[in-house]
Amino acid sequence: MPRLAVPTKREVDGKTRALFEGVDYVALGHLHGAQQPRNGRVVYSGSPLAYSFSEEHHTKSVTIVDLEQDGTVAIRQVPTPVHRPVIRLSGELEEFLNVPSLRAQRSDLCSVHLADCETPIEPMGRLRQSYDHVLELALESRLGHQHDLSYAKRLAGLSDLELSEQFIADMWGRPALPTETKLLQAGLESLRSGQESSVTGNERSINIDEGPALGVALLAGVGTGVYPSVADACKSVIKVTNTVKADPKTKKVYDGFYPIYQSLYHSVKGQFEAVSKIVA
Questions:
Q1: d(Cα 110, Cα 131) in Å, to the nearest integer?
Q2: C-alpha–C-alpha distance, residues 12 and 185, integer Å
Q3: What is the maximum span of the chain, computed from C-alpha positions, in angstroms?
């Protein structure tokens, strides 16, 4: 009488094999790749279809076992038809769209890894115009480089502009272009002006980026007689480019918090003095 065992172990080590002594055929499961770890009696039949991209190079099959009365075992691996292969592709987006040899895989189940230096616009939508079954898309340019410090520590102490430029570098794998930096500066300045206008009630924007350096130059001009006074120097050089008006709803919120903020200093002034004596 033939003896059959159907365990579900992932590994067949020396101890596990001892359990199968005297068993004519052992059918193992879980592993998707067909294999025979021991003398044709212990067999992983594998899966008849690929269920992940890691199985790209598997030869899928069905295991047919003839088990005779005397325990003789005959095993045949019958390959199963692959109607839609799984495949992993790597390259730049324009290659996938324009190279005919790559487009030959348009009907396969595809996992695409883009290696573009900059993140393309709408990559999945553009890929699916040429590849019918893109199931997975990875942007290798977003993986970045390995660093010793954590991301939070690397960003510590950066200004708002530096933080925005670092975001571009991390996402696109290159430093921010001068035109991009100007756009970031304009956006951050607009945001800052809107916040300050809600606090003060009316925030004026001027045509100066380097305030401290310009202040020194204006004082030098007054000292050398170029301008008769600091007020005249400022009036001559500094111009108001636009006025940002406060948002009434936001200003109302700030007006409610501001008195509380002012009272905090007086509330903790004594504690500050006590702390300064301890650390002195």
A1: 8
A2: 63
A3: 117
